[in-house]
Design brief:
By secondary structure, the chain is mainly α. Helix content is 39%, strand content 0%.
């Protein structure tokens, strides 16, 4: 009897020891309690290295400066969309894009909108960080916190179809089983 109790005690200590080793990782992306969200645009691959035809035309290296293999995501996006990356250096808007910029900014432009939205989202997540057991066990409460903002695709589909807007077909609504 005493030996069985000793084995159970050793097994319990082993389980607790292993459980103690499981923490300390990075917070889960879906955990709304995390202080800041990851910036998915901060990770940029370098451009492929290329050997120029004439090495005498290379710019002089500057410590801490940029090099030809550094990523330039904004200029690359402008080029991919058919624009001229060189026009980005001057802050003036090309005449051909004037109507587009006027339409996009017709209701005004809020400076620092990303920082404002980030602060508001952080405040919202702090106010909706789950129940006690969710916080205690580190459960994901992301979907619970944002459930009130969730779009019902079938209601939106019915809304637009009722107004005569051509909409693509949607998958059938999921049904509850066993009830």
């Amino acid at each position: 009897m005493r030996a069985a109790g000793g084995r159970i005690g050793i097994a319990l200590m082993a389980v607790l020891g292993l459980a103690a080793c499981s923490g300390g990782g990075a917070p889960h992306l879906m955990n709304v309690r995390s202080g800041s969200t990851p910036d998915e645009f901060a990770i940029l691959p370098n451009k492929p290295l290329q050997i120029p035809k004439d090495t005498s035309t290379l710019p002089t290296p500057t410590p801490g400066g940029t090099n030809l293999a550094d990523p330039t995501p904004k200029a690359d996006a402008v080029a991919a969309l058919g624009g001229r990356p060189a026009a980005m250096k001057s802050q003036s808007i090309p005449a051909a894009d004037g109507a587009l910029v006027a339409a996009a900014t017709r209701y005004g432009v809020t400076p620092g909108i990303r920082q404002t939205l980030d602060a508001q989202d952080l405040r919202f997540r702090k106010n909706h960080n789950g129940r006690l057991l969710d916080r205690l066990f580190g459960n994901t409460v992301y979907f619970q916190a944002y459930r009130a903002m969730e779009l019902d695709p079938y209601a939106a589909l019915a809304f637009w179809r009722a107004r005569g807007v051509a909409t693509p077909s949607a998958p059938p609504k999921p049904t509850k089983r066993g009830g």
